[in-house]
Automatic annotation (TrEMBL):
One MF annotation (Gene Ontology) recorded for this entry: alpha-L-arabinofuranosidase activity
Entry's Gene Ontology BP terms: L-arabinose metabolic process
Protein family per UniProt: Belongs to the glycosyl hydrolase 51 family.
EC number in record: 3.2.1.55
Residues in the signal sequence: 1-26
Classification via SMART domains: Alpha-L-AF_C (SM00813)
PANTHER family assigned to the protein according to its UniProt record, in alphabetical order: ALPHA-L-ARABINOFURANOSIDASE 1
Keywords: Glycoprotein, Hydrolase, Signal
Protein name (database record): non-reducing end alpha-L-arabinofuranosidase
Entry keyword annotation includes Glycoprotein: yes
Amino acid sequence: MTFQKLLRKGITTCTIALASAGLASAQKTVKISVLDNKPGAHISPSMWGVFFEDINFAADGGLYAELVKNRSFEFPMPMMGWDEKELNGADASLLVVNRSLANTSNPRYAVVTMKKNEGAFVLTNEGFRGMGLTKDESYNFSIMAHAVEGDVKIKVQAVNEKNEPIGEASLDAVKGGWNTYRTSFKCTATAAKGKLNVIFEGKGVVEIDMLSLFPQHTWKQRPNGLRADLVQKLADLHPGFVRFPGGCIVEGRELANRYQWKKTVGDIAERQLIMNRWNVEFSYRNAPDYYQSFGLGFFEYFQLCEDIGATALPILNCGMACQYNSAEVASLNQTDEYIQDALDLVEFANGSTSTKWGGLRASLGHPAPFNLKMVGIGNEQWGEQYLERYKLFAAAMKQKHPEIKLVASAGPGPDGDQFDYLTKVMRQEKANLIDEHYYRSPKWFLNNAARYDNYDRKVSKVFAGEYAAHIMDEDQKDTHAESHNTWWAALSEAAFMTGLERNADMVQLASYAPLLAHVDAWQWRPDLIWFNNLQSVATPNYYVQQLFSTNKGTRVIPALADGKVLAGQDSLYCSATVDSVNNRIIIKLINAAEQSKQISFDMTGKKSAFKQATWTKIATMNKLAFNSIDNPDVVKPVSQKMKWSNKQTVTIEPLSANVFVLPYR
């Protein structure tokens, strides 16, 4: 993820004129020859993927379905997210104990003392901008507790925005040493911003830790799992890969704040919480309650990839913190720890169950390997310091795991001295993939659809690792958090993506970024999927990604106008592929003009006589149209069946993305 100053450097204001469409009859017909008998570059099955980063409350408060914030009192302010009160004459107290010398991973627990058998002591958790609770859904509560003395009873109660109870249950009596106690309840009403009350009654002393509430309905019904509606939207993209755990999250503001995968696997209660670097990144969007519990860790990421049929692409710290923040680096003679983390990750993902890390994978319920094929070394690093460390990683990885492809950084932007230096030296180093990032204006994306047409094919391949068209704030009023995900931005990305697809021999992976954002807790816009505590919405950008990811084909075929690829001529952009697995020709055509276009397709290869097609399109004359949780269907694809011949004329709507799928025998 690049930063605001990079955006200021790279983004210019887009034009917002909303003109009426012209008559197709007033324009010339554009003839596009589709040479279906001249298959070209092979398309990677993993080409279109997704980029996940824990920004915008994407993990805790988002994809990870835990509803309790600061469940083990590990935030720097131990009671952040919690409120306490005494009811009906109770005399009680709460004390937070720090046992850091004995347990560095989970040092704190709370002690509740009930001094007399009267009234109740209530701990209330506010959740992540509230708790989303749904009528007739069941919820599982758990708590680790130790009965020190006396007889303290514990109940749980879900309440709505008016503090009215909508679900409750009691736990078994707490007895003896530390144990986990569980109970469940069903909600009688829906609350978008509910809360959880944990109620203590009786007289005595009880120690508590790891207070947790999950919906029973999670992705694949896994206990303590992932939020089902968000994973479903990922699955509906049919992504070829998932890049995780992010970009800047990997680096950290300083090395102590970096992502360390080994601390995110194993017992949930022993995963050491750290501050999320987006907690303080932007002064205008501070989130002082943003931390990483790592309930969503590397095992869960690999499992998610397997669930949705995607290749895993983990990114690892290379001994460098974010160069925009501290620019802290590990000395070259102390990078062994970082390199060993990379080697051990391959063992965790692919190793035999008889190995240390492969055995851990098996103990977590997955004895079969995850078949890891790629690893990224660093994120958006630049300069000689990065090159020095990359060389050390590459040498070690290639010696022990030559089967693993390495992804190298090209820096934070798509051009300039940093980019030129890194792409040159990484090609010399024969990096498998070079990760290019572009956060630019819609105009940049339209102007760069031919970016890869003349790249040197004999050197490293490209990973378009992070891209999104950004409009400026003055171009869109902040009526909704989702308002920067405009149709104009999505359409310009679609035009750019035709260039990526045409050059599939060069560009082998591509992913929009970021992926997820909470409407009440975002730090960065635009984002592919927006959500609140109960619902989620696909953006116009999401539907563009879906058009490509579900219609990618197996090989590129030429689609030419006047003998040239269409990369902006007459505001048209085109790519075509053949899908030899499903026996179909796929044509993608983008019209970025505010006038309709008359198009004549000539299937000059005549590999088969085409009789019908499915035409899917997204179109609106409102460039600033966007989907919101309140209005999710403003911009979305529509499909129709149509007759098709080897010479077919169609009228393409203004400002539209179109996909024609032609079955053949």
